[in-house]
Amino acid sequence: MNTSSPRAATPAFDSVHFRQALSQFATGVTVITTRLADGTFRGLTASSFNSVSLDPPLVLWSLKSQASSMPVFSGNSHYVINILAADQAHLAKLFSTRTEDPFSQVEFELSRTGHPVLKGCAASFECHNRSRYPEGDHVIFVGEVEHCEFSPREPLVFHAGRLGGLHVPG
Ligand SMILES: Cc1cc2nc3c(=O)[nH]c(=O)nc-3n(C[C@H](O)[C@H](O)[C@H](O)COP(=O)(O)O)c2cc1C
Q1: Which residues, judged by CB distance below 6 Å to any ligand atom, belong to the binding site of ligand 1?
Q2: Ligand 1 atom at minimum distance from 49 CA
Q3: 5-40: per-residue pLDDT in tens?
Q4: Beta-strand (E) ranges in the chain?
Q5: Looking at residue 49, what is its pLDDT?
């Protein structure tokens, strides 16, 4: 068997099939927020969050290259990753659709660096925008965590295209 292939084989599946297969992997849901130089706020829903390193404390998430918020998140020095609780599915929807001023509809306070921390979340990570890696049609963002808070709550879960709670049998 040839184990040294320089390139991946051309996929025999389409993107719909790929997305459906990926959607079997249950994730939590985050809203990633930041503040622009003019004082306005920006945020988007992302389920691509994951941990990277304990020392230094690093996390990652990915943003599609064509996202309108790409210039904001690429250029800003800091952002906050808000981990949504089970009763915050409305926030996942709010921040994944074009809305004039979503921050007028949510409760938040400001982080130490002046970025929005959404109230009622299970956890928040205030990150320095450490590095970015373009891959395919997304950019992987690696954040260095400068501050984090948590308040154990049932998390919001994204699975097979649906948002819900854990529904762990008792
Ligand atoms: C549950 C859920 C998870 C999502 N995860 C991501 C993600 O990890 N990365 C991403 O680029 N978009 C993700 N999206 C889509 C963005 O939230 C959506 O495209 C958003 O409107 C992008 O905003 P923008 O184009 O204004 O930047 C997700 C949407 C939902 C509902």
Answers
A1: 29, 44-48, 62-64, 67-69, 92, 96, 158
A2: 8
A3: 889 999 999 999 999 999 999 999 999 999 999 999
A4: 27-28, 30-35, 41-46, 50-53, 58-64, 78-83, 108-110, 116-118, 123-135, 138-150, 157-159, 162-164
A5: 98
Backbone Cα Rg of the chain:
17
Q: How far apart are CA 70 and CA 58, in angstroms?
A: 20
> Could you give the count of Cα atoms lying within 13 Å of 31 in the half-sphere of its Cβ?
30
Domain boundaries, the chain: 28-160
pLDDT band at 139 (very low <50, low <70, confident <90, very high): very high
pLDDT at res. 150: 98
d(CA 37, CA 112): 16
Amino acid 2 reads: N
Nearest-CA residue for atom 11 of ligand 1:
63
Nearest-CA residue for ligand 1 atom 5 is 46
Residue bearing the CA closest to ligand 1, atom 21 = 96
CA–CA dist 44, 153 (Å, integer): 21
Q: What is the CATH number of domain 28-160?
A: 2.30.110.10
